[in-house]
Amino acid sequence: MAQPVRVTVWNEFRHEKSDEHIRQVYPKGIHGAIADYLEAQAGISVQTATLDEPEHGLTETVLADTDVLIWWGHQAHGAVEDAIVDRVHARVLDGMGLICLHSSHFSKIFKRLMGTTCNLKWREIGENERLWVVDPSHPIAAGVGQYIDIPHEEMYGEFFDIPQPDRLVFVSWFPGGEVFRSGCCYHRGRGKVFYFRPGHETFPTFYQAEVRHVIGNAVRWAAPTAGPEPVFGNVQPLEEVTVTE
Ligand code: ZN
Q: Ligand 1: distance of its center to the CA of 26 in Å?
């Protein structure tokens, strides 16, 4: 039997402690809601980590035992220590998958991996979001209908200052007229990165079946594969090479 994909769900976990409404929506934290779903999936094992733990819960050991890291942050991106960002960055380049959710577009790790501002437009009036599948053969869209409709969400609008995704899986539409690239795949080094837009903390988005299903698909997509170790530097030719004047 194949080894399970080892997932670590990382959450800032501050809103849930400071805001009664958010605590009611996510009594176990956003990480708890995501972990509850993933733990029930075959072939996935889950642990969680949060900002206020030592080393933000992302010790060398935890990261070494993580195949896919899921990241949710919003109000405290600046509190994430640069040394931990360096550590996560190195693991991504070495093959760990990374799934950045919603306001994690502004996390230090996502901005580092993108190299752009990752800025966008936003509005919070609780309008619905319709995520259209624009890459139906992509594994992250497997089992998803033509679109996912989320009844209430925060709006994010273009222009979203990111590099062109390697593959774009979802485009969101909002009733106010905006659109947004809401499911973006990247490769960085040996690692795979997926940005998935939904998940504002005041809405029960991470309990919605379709959203959870996409996160599960993204975990399987982002998991490392047993490819060859890259070799760098000066090398001898494999064949005998005759160089003429
Ligand atoms: Zn938000």
A: 14
CA 4 from centroid of its chain's CA atoms: 19
For residue 135, with 0-12 CB atoms within 10 Å meaning exposed, 13-18 middle and 19 or more buried, which class applies?
Answer: middle
Q: Is residue 145 part of a domain?
A: no
The string of pLDDT tens digits covering residues 28-58 is 999 999 999 999 999 999 999 999 999 999 9
What is the CATH classification number for the domain harbouring 105? 3.40.50.880
Closest CA to 170 of 137, 142, 147, 143: 147
pLDDT digits (tens, 9 = 90+) for 104-139: 999 999 999 999 999 999 999 999 999 999 999 999
| Ligand 1 centroid distance, CA of 243 (Å) | 61
State in Å: Cα 78 to ligand 1 middle. 16
pTM above 0.90, yes or no: yes
Distance of CA 203 from the midpoint of ligand 1 (Å): 9
Question: 244 CA distance to ligand 1 centroid (A)?
Answer: 63
**Domains: count for the chain:** 1
From CA 90, how far away is CA 5, in angstroms rounded? 19
Q: Tell me whether residue 36 is in a domain.
A: yes
Output the CA 202–ligand 1 centroid distance in Å: 8
User: What domain range includes position 93?
Assistant: 5-115+183-222
Instruction: Collect residues with CB below 5 Å from ion ligand 1.
Output: 103, 154, 200
Write the DSSP symbol of residue 57.
Answer: G
Q: How far is the CA of 75 from the centre of ligand 1 (A)?
A: 9
